[in-house]
Structures are given as C-alpha cells and as structure tokens.
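QA checklist item 7 of 12: single-chain prediction sanity check.
[x] sequence parsed
[x] length recorded as 587
[x] structure emitted
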Amino acid sequence: MDAQGRGRDEGIDPADQWVLNPDTGDYELRLTPSSGRSSAAAGGSDARTPGPRRRSKPEAAPEGDRASVPGQRSGRRGSGGGRGDRDETRRQGSRAAAPAAGRRKAKPKKSGKKKALVWTGGVLAFLMVGVGTAGYLLYEHFNGNITSVSTDGAGTGGFSKDRAINVLVIGTDKRTGKGNEGYGDAGSVGHADTNILFHVSKDRTNATALSIPRDLITDIPDCPTTMEDGTEKDIPATAGGRFNTSLGQSDRTPSCTMRTVTELTGLKVDHFMVADFNAVKSLTSAVGGVDVCLAKDIDDKDSHLKLSRGEHTIEGEQALAFLRTRHSVGFGSDLSRIEIQQQFLGSLMRKLKSNDTLTSPTKMFSLAEAATKALTVDDKIADINQLRKLGMELASVDPKNITFTTVPVLDNPDDKATVILDKSKAPQVFSMMRDDVSFTAVEKQEKAKAKAEEAAKLKGEMADPADVRVDVYNGGAPAGSAQNALDWLQNEKDVLKSTNQANADEDVKKTQLVYAPNQADQARRLADMMGLSASALKPTTTDAGEMDPMELTLGPDFTEAGSPLSAPSKAPEDIQRVEADKAVCAK
C-alpha cells in the first residue's frame, strides 16, 4: 500500500504525514503517527522509504480544473529527462533516505523558520513565477500534473546563477471551467489579459514586477509557432495592435507573448507561466486566503465583487472577482485594476513568507497540488525539479526589495479605449531593468556606485553643440537608426556638423563613441546629450585633425534618439509603483 492509500484508510490527510526531522531540517514521510522516527529509520535493514506508485498514465483532471490556453499540450513533459533517469534518481533518493544506523553524521540544528525555508525553497515563486517542491517522494505525482507549451525558441532556454532572471506571468481571460461563464468575453480564445514580467537581479537582492497593460498599442512580431498537432506555423507580424492579442489571436501561443515583451522592453525572457480563472480560485484557496484592504464599500455588478470597507480575507470565487474589479476602483480603467492586482500579489507574497504557510505541510502539499494542476508552463521547466531550482533562486528576495510597477503609458489620442507608451518615461524603466538597477533603496549596490563614478568622469568642460563633429554609423541598431539619430542631433540638439555614414564595417555589442584626446570636450557634450555611459567612450591615443569627426556607432541597445543609453540610478519619481512589503487599501 502506498503512502496516499494508507493515509486515506486511516483517515489521515496525506499532507500531515510529512513531518519535520529536527536533525536534518528536512520533511520526511511517517506512516505511523505514534512513531518517533521516520518510516525509513524504523524498518531495519529491509525497510524502504515508500513513495507514490507510478501510474502508466496521469489521471485526468475534472473538467475545468486544468489551465487551458491556445496550443497547450495536456500532460506533456519537458526537460525532465527520460523515464530511466527519473527512476534511477528515485532509487538513489530512496537509498539515501535509509542509511545504516549510526553511520549518518548529524547536521547542525536550524531555526524552525530557516528549516521551513530550506524545505520549501521556492515558496515566493510558488504562485508568482513557479512551483516549489512539496517533497522528493511526490516527484512523479506532481510531474504528472504539469502541462506545458513550447517556447518556440522565444526564450533563453534556461536560467543560471550568474545572471538576472526574467519570467513572464500571463493571466488569460478564457472562460475555462465550471462557474466562469460570467467572466471575460464569451467567445474569447484566451488573450494575454494580465501580464507581469518578473525580473530578479543578478545578485538576487531585489526584483521588479512590471505590469504590461493589455490595451497597450504595440507591434507584435513574427511568431514561428508549434501548433497543437505538432505542425509548424509562421504567424505574421501585426503593427500597432493591442498587446493582449499576442496570445490567442491568430493561433498565437505564449511564445508569441514572450517575443512581444522582448521587442517592447529589450529584455530577453527566460520562462513563462500561464494561469486562467480556475488557477486564481484554486491557488488562493490552497494558501488559506489572501488579506486585502478596501478604502470604500464595493458592489461591482460586472466583477460580482461585494465587500464592505476595511480588511478582508478572500479566496476562490471572491478572490477572482477582486482581481477582475476595475469599474469600482480608481478611475475605473484597466490601469486601476492593475494597481489592485499588484496590491493583491504583494499581500500574497507576505502570506507565503509567513510562518503560518511555511511551517504547514498540509498547506504546502495543497499549494503544490493546486499549482501544478492550475499553471501551464513552458517546456523548459515542465519538471518539478526545474521548477524547484527556479524557486530556490527567487525565494531569498526580501519583499521590501520587490517593486511592482507598470509600464508608463499615455491615453491614445486616436482611441480612448487604448493606451500608448509614454516615451519620456518607459525607456528609463526598461533601461533600469536591462541594466539590473534596483527600483528600491537596496544599499551599497556596486552597480549604482559604478554608475556614479562614470557620471563623475563625464563631468568637465563641454564643447558647444555647434562645434561637435560626428559621423554616425549603424552597427547593429534597428534599420534607419543612423538617420533617426542624425535628424535628432541636427533638429533637436543643433549638432549641425554631423553626417549619416550608413552601416559600420562591423557590428558592435553596445553603442560606442570613438574620439581623439583633443576631442574630449566634444565627446563629453555628445555623451551628455545621448545618455552614454563612460564605458561607451573609446578614446584613441593620438590627436585628430581640426576637421576630423568623432565616430558614433549605434549598437543593439539604441532604440530611438532621445532615449538614454545608460540606465538612470533610480526610477522616475512619478511612475506608478508599490513595494511588496507595504499593505495598501484599494481606493
């Protein structure tokens, strides 16, 4: 009899059979509640750590319990390796769980909170960007729950400890499952209704959760896509469409949303997670509800949310209604809904970090079960081990250093129902994320210090714009960039002694300015105009002739003239933002 079966026979919740071992800091399976040891230690030399039986085919979830998005493959496994690899790993884990008596070296005891964090690992990432592990022996069970979709080459193919991590979380408006008939559009194929790009810094000290409005007008690129039947389809680009049509419309899958995010922000996405309405309901119930605060009474006939002013703990249907409310909060727009979603997710993170969640095997089991069933992930992390590793990378970020913000936008003058990029602010936000600059006051960041030093080097005598001579080359920037820069320099900055030299002989990784020692004052002026960092300045060793120009080569980091090429040291003061550790009441 397996652990799940015996637990049911004795009237025990299977999750309660996982007990914390104070000597190791790990949770172990106990089938005999009265025993003071784990079953592995109590059985003598013939004892084996029991685990779930292998199913030849995962049991089908009830209709409506699984996330459903265009192009998904039910039960498909991604990077988990072959069956033989998993079986061998399971055998090794079983042997490791039952060493001979007296041969195991005791580990130093850890505090209760620390031990729980070690066990759960990815608890912060659990609902935001991943699924933690609820115990090694449930590996096969949870793997059978996972649904995946191909990245179609749109992502990086993985993540590593030596660089920042970018995970895209997508909430669809598809009316999947029982009880969701009143939400979303009746004929929706599942658009990218809620979109959060979760960026975790290279040193894992801070994170930025960037909300992308569904009604943002942007270009959707060409999307090579693997269809549900395995065929390949090249879905053509759409110029000036709504962001939410990057998923669902024209058979687009989440990989197309990844490509759209990269084109919009310049950030390469590592992985994606997709959740539908049922995911919100099941996950909030699994965590025991989420605390929210309202600054006024709300009775929204569209979202069906009816709550009085003050604090409430909501879950299931009520949580979904809260996240879909917009007409009764703020200005009644989708941007107002984004704000209460961010407040909700901040509260959820605080709940997940609390001892009430971390030290409860029952809650952690329920979370793992709900999350692996409810979320659709990309095929590179369609394995509980990969999800655990991702979660471990993210779990150490303190909520006070996690900032929720929204892409700065303006009302579209041509269509009041949509928004367009605020080109004076959005490029700064994107640049900060690309350069891994924290939106919070994380102390003594080496990157911020280096940028301050670079800025100091640029100070000094600057030439008059009329005296700046420069040839502009395209060295890997978008087509037309050299002319775009030239027009801006001449018409906006009065740098009349500038010329477009078309394509450079070789592409560069980043925009650079080559100048002679006697052109330093011109270089400082141009760098100040364009927002070039000191690392972009490349001095030669010999002086130039009086009429010789400097050489400005535009790289892939150049988007359009007027957008700084080096990230600011802090976020613009007037953008919408909130830190995850702050409780905010929806207005």
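[x] summary fact logged: The CA atoms of residues 93 and 136 lie 8 Å apart.
[ ] second reviewer sign-off
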